[in-house]
Write the structure tokens for this entry.
Amino acid sequence: MASENAVAQGDWGGGKSPFNVSYGKLMMWYFLLSDAFTFSALLISYGAIRFSSPYWADPNVAFSKMPFMGDANVPLGFVSIMTFILILSSVFVVLAVIEGHRENKAGVMKWMLGGIIGGIAFLGCQAWEWTHLISHGNNIWENHYGPQAFGMLFFLITGFHGFHVFSGICLNIWAFVNSANGEFGRRKNGYEMIEKVGLYWHFVDLVWVFVFLAFYLL
Amino acid sequence: MGGHLSDAEYKSQVRAVWKATLWLSIITIVEVVAALIWPESAPKMPLNIFFILASLLKAYFIVGEFMHVKYETRALAITILAPTIFLVWFVIAFLWEGGEWLNLREYWGVIDPNAVHAPTPADHGHGGGGHH
């Protein structure tokens, strides 16, 4: 039997990915898909509870304070900065992936470090935001802006997202160390691990788009 | 996928990344400006539709460019993206359900339908609105 007929006549025999990606990358994608449903469940719960409330918080009022600016009224100012920090951090990690394709160790390390610093800066901003809200009497039991559920959902969902940011930073640091000590450079698949942790990091950015939409815009 | 990039490929990839970054930034700025200048008295619906469409556009740039789906095989893109169709049902069903909870609670007098405003900052001492 001619080998070119094997596919037409028999079952697919394996050995070559129909998706043209490695097993690890495909599984990272499936994990992220499942995680997307977890976040969707949280955000849709938020929507259902919000629709069931006779009133809700006005984000322009609830999120209007900035560090070092005291009582100045800057609606959405600080959270816009946080959004830019996270986008830039994501961009740095994309650039690290591209440098990985060139097997450029110094380039990977430089951009990965940028991504890590961006992630830490984002978490620092979130820590300030939480501290400010909590020290002004807004917590999971009560808040000045809307029903109790507003505070509970805010801290639950931004906390769950923040925990993803934290674990992403840990993965990025691990990938940075393994680039620096030459581990990825020695691997047969080169810097592919940068792509996998990069996918996770971009997913964190993607989720933030919808957290931003649900809490700060709508 | 290892292998070396040619200089031309490298340059075009980096350019595509910065282009997507520029789009993400512009969309975010427009969203925030729209949120701030939208008059209090105007209906919120058109603004909210704009926010949702703009967020989906941002998601397109992140998934397509940063997560590289635009350049993957069609089969991979479908296997990742097709299951998210369930979210359409998920959103509609549960927002509908939330609205119905409100109707029921008003109907049975669990909440006062006239209490449709958030507590003002002057109400601080009373500790927010939620008493369950």
